[in-house]
Design goal:
The chain has 156 residues and is of the alpha/beta class. Helix content is 42%, strand content 15%. A four-stranded mixed beta sheet has the order 1-2-6-5. A two-stranded antiparallel sheet has the order 3-4.
Length: 156
């Protein structure tokens, strides 16, 4: 066997040994029952648009004390300390929202946690946000009137 072939074989063997020794992260899947309807709706809309992935690693829960940099927020979405996609919703704000606004909030946070989307804070000339990935929760009329448009934009 030539030197190059021996070297290549050794690199492959070392890689296989090292990758086999890597600690595998345990996946978590836990959805608070109060968020199941919005989670199922999100999955249904994803499937409707041909995004047929299944989520087997996701945590969605409520917190009554949710803040970012000392400011109370409606929700947070992104990876937790173990890289599990995690959505937390402020239960105090949740109670004040309409059904459409609840969809808006959960889809927004899943946009961060699952779709890896950032904020899109642009506005139409009317003052209506261009995206559910806007940093504000839509007023109920805009949420209801333009819901399909917002969902379509989210999954693009």
């Amino acid at each position: 066997m030539s030197f190059k072939a021996s070297y290549f074989a050794m690199v492959v063997i070392i890689y296989l040994i090292m990758s086999g020794c890597a600690e595998k992260r345990e996946k978590k899947f836990r959805i608070d029952p109060g968020l199941e309807a919005q989670y199922n709706y999100f999955i249904e809309e994803a499937h409707h648009r041909g995004q047929l992935w299944g989520l087997d690693d996701l945590v969605m829960d409520f917190s009554s004390d949710l803040s970012l940099n000392g400011v109370q927020v409606a929700g947070l979405g992104g990876p937790d300390d173990n890289d599990t996609p995690h959505v937390t919703i402020n239960s105090n704000i949740w109670e004040t929202l309409s059904d459409c606004q609840k969809d808006n909030l959960v889809f927004h946070e899943l946009g961060h946690a699952v779709l890896n989307k950032g904020h899109r804070n642009g506005m139409y000339s009317s003052g209506r946000p261009r995206s559910w990935m806007n940093s504000v929760i839509l007023d109920n009329d805009d949420c209801v009137d333009f819901k399909g448009e917002y969902i379509e934009e989210l999954f693009r």
